[in-house]
Design brief:
Blueprint (H helix, E strand, L loop, with lengths): L14 H12 L8 H11 L3 H18 L2 H17 L3 H18 L2 H17 L3 H17 L3 H17 L3 H17 L3 H17 L3 H18 L2 H17 L3 H17 L3 H17 L3 H17 L3 H5 L6 H30 L5 H50 L2 H10 L5 E13 L2 H5 L4 H21 L3 E6 L2 E6 L8 H19 L12 E15 L5 E5 L1 H11 L6 E4 H7 L3 E11 L3 E11 L1 H8 L7
Parallel strand pairs: 4-6
Antiparallel strand pairs: 1-3, 1-4, 2-3, 4-5, 6-8, 7-8
Helix pairs in contact: 1-2, 2-3, 2-4, 3-4, 4-5, 4-6, 5-6, 6-7, 6-8, 7-8, 8-9, 8-10, 9-10, 10-11, 10-12, 11-12, 12-13, 12-14, 13-14, 14-15, 17-18, 21-22
Length: 620
């Protein structure tokens, strides 16, 4: 059972208001200038998915007549939402792509960000993880640059949903908590309700039933007042799961029935199917086999009516070449069918003369047609399969290159065959090192040593990627990364320090793990900011690297740090002192560098996170 996505289109109005608007429209109680506005409100806010679809189609038709790109965009967006709610995922995706084309043509970046989040929602629902994450990140980047906090938070929450579906619960919880901070800041009751419910489901999956029940019940209470029926149906089934885990089947069945009744009332096919399956399992456990069978039949009926998800999973790229090939095959088959009819008519005219020849000729003709159709089918399948293999191999090689080099550098290498060294005036460099690693590692088996280092560095990679920093390299137990390249930014020092705090906390938390296969270490961290030169070294097994005195001083900051501390140089301190509480250590003698001022980064000021999230367009 998965989560659901928060729509980037506005949340539902009160049902009574929707009915009032509908009454005005059906009775023509509006002026000519009000018609499109009325249609837009009905398509956006009507609680019935089927009626949402009807009003969306009316809006699209009228917007085309008036040549209104803005209203046409909204019409396709509302159509996509209604089709998604009806589980018609293929058509929903097509509608969203139409909206994306319109937003691109009129160069409306905010609308383009919204539709990319909606496309990601469909891919998420249909279990296409790769495309879901891809389109969420595209949409979120656009919305962040547009300073659209509410929809950025919606996208962040939906990305958390995608991680949840992949059972990456810690990443999911990070997304939900971060989006919750934004929703509370902008006083979004609807957004906060979704976050409460989503966090409740994460708690349920982690076995924390009391926290799960408290969060989900509060989310349901808020959503009942807002008439947000689709998520309520999902949350009710999660409450059923919680009570079932406590062997309270009576309460579990009651919650499942509430979910089924709500889904049936509003035509939510996917939720009807899921609720029936859940009731079937509960009645089977209760020994009520007749009721169990009845609900299972209903589950199967609605499951079969849901649009073919597998087809949507393969719609990652709507390419013209594939469509042309498909239509050509259809034309060829239709031509052969027409030939078949002509042959049959001719043979029937000769039937009285030679019945045996007619039968033989018919069999031969049908055999040839079948062979031709089969050949066309195999040709089309071969073309599609070959194309898919080529695309997969290209994607694999591109991903491998991006694992080695930054994206901009990788593109330059592919285009020019070489990479020119570049100077960056302000870059923040971080080094980590495990205390007494050499002596400690001598006591470990090679397998445990490698597994332990991989455990820590894999999490470091995740943290670095989260803050959009660049991993440079690892050497033994040392990890090196940088911020402010290959694309210069203004807040690289702040993001690097935030990442350093997360790395320190992760290493500390890992000591509480009861895992005999993972060794526990203390970590030292050093940070410095200044100019560097970056480029690619070598022609075989090449690597992206940085050089300069800034790098050397960052390394010295690490070697002069203390276990569990973040030691920063004077240059970094001047950039982050307003965002973090720092402790001055004085001037400390450093090998080959003389006396350098050093500071310990102690804690994050409360305002830092909000300032980080509210950057203007020229920010990250």
């Amino acid at each position: 059972m998965g989560l659901f996505c928060i729509s980037t289109i506005c949340f539902s109005q009160e049902k009574s208001e929707s009915l009032l608007l509908e009454h005005r429209y059906t009775n023509n109680n509006y002026s000519k200038s009000e018609k499109l506005t009325l249609l837009n409100e009905l398509a956006q806010n009507h609680p019935d998915p089927q009626k949402k679809l009807h009003y969306s189609l009316e809006l699209i038709k009228n917007a085309k007549l008036l040549d209104s790109s803005k209203l046409l965009f909204q019409g396709y967006m509302h159509k996509g939402v209604s089709l998604r709610l009806k589980s018609d995922f293929t058509q929903a995706l097509e509608s969203y792509f139409e909206a994306a084309n319109i937003a691109s043509k009129i160069k409306n970046q905010r609308d383009l960000g919204l539709v990319n989040i909606s496309i990601a929602d469909v891919y998420s629902i249909t279990s296409n993880h790769k495309n879901a994450v891809k389109y969420y990140k595209i949409g979120m980047d656009i919305l962040k640059k547009e300073n659209d906090l509410e929809n950025y938070a919606n996208g962040l929450s939906n990305l958390g949903d995608e991680y949840f579906n992949k059972k990456e619960y810690d990443l999911a919880m990070e997304c939900f908590m971060e989006s919750g901070l934004i929703f509370r800041k902008i006083n979004s009751l609807e957004g906060n309700a979704f976050v409460l419910g989503n966090m409740g489901m994460v708690y349920a999956e982690k076995g924390k039933d009391d926290l799960a029940e408290a969060n989900i019940n509060e989310a349901i209470r808020i959503m009942e007042n807002l008439e947000l029926y689709y998520p309520i149906s999902v949350y009710l089934r999660y409450m059923s799961d919680i009570y079932a885990s406590k062997n309270n089947r009576k309460a579990a069945i009651a919650y499942s029935k509430r979910s089924l009744d709500l889904a049936t009332k509003y035509g939510l096919k996917e939720q009807i199917s899921d609720a029936n399956l859940q009731l079937s399992d509960l009645y089977e456990q209760n020994g009520s086999y007749k009721k169990s069978l009845s609900h299972f039949k209903n589950h199967s009926t609605f499951k079969d009516s849901i649009a073919n998800i597998e087809k949507v999973q393969k719609m990652a790229d709507l390419r013209t070449e594939f469509e042309v090939s498909k239509k050509q095959t259809e034309v060829d088959l239709l031509t052969q069918q027409q030939k078949t009819q002509n042959i049959q008519v001719a043979l029937l005219n000769q039937q009285n003369k030679n019945k045996q020849n007619v039968v033989i000729a018919t069999i031969i003709a049908l055999f040839l047609i079948v062979m031709l159709a089969f050949g066309l089918y195999r040709r089309n399948k071969y073309i599609s399969k070959t194309k898919l293999i080529i695309e997969e191999e290209k994607s694999r090689s591109d991903n491998l290159l991006l694992n080695i080099l930054p994206e901009e550098t990788a593109q330059e290498l592919k285009q020019n065959g070489k990479v020119e060294a570049k100077r960056f005036d302000s870059v923040t460099v971080l080094f980590t090192d495990f205390k007494s690693f050499t002596s400690y590692s001598e006591k470990l088996t090679p397998e445990k040593l490698v597994k332990s280092v991989d455990y820590y560095f894999s999490k470091f990679d995740t943290i670095i990627e989260k803050y959009k920093l660049e991993k440079i390299k690892t050497a033994g137990d040392s990890y090196m990364c940088a911020g402010g390249l290959p694309f210069p930014t203004k807040d690289h020092a702040i993001k690097m320090t935030l990442a350093a705090f997360e790395i320190t906390q992760f290493v500390e938390d890992s000591k509480n793990l009861n895992n005999p296969e993972i060794a526990h270490f203390d970590i030292r961290i050093g940070i410095n900011t200044g100019p560097v030169v970056a480029g690619v070294v070598g022609t075989k097994k090449f690597a992206y690297d940085i050089w300069g005195d800034t790098v050397n001083v960052a390394s010295r900051m690490e070697s002069n740090s203390i276990a569990g501390k973040i030691n920063i140089a004077e240059n970094t301190y001047q950039l982050i002192k307003d965002a973090f509480a720092c402790e001055y250590r004085g001037e400390i003698d450093v090998k080959n560098k003389g006396a350098l001022k050093m500071y310990f980064a102690k804690s994050i000021h409360e305002k830092t996170f909000y300032a980080f999230m509210n950057e203007q367009k020229e920010g990250v």
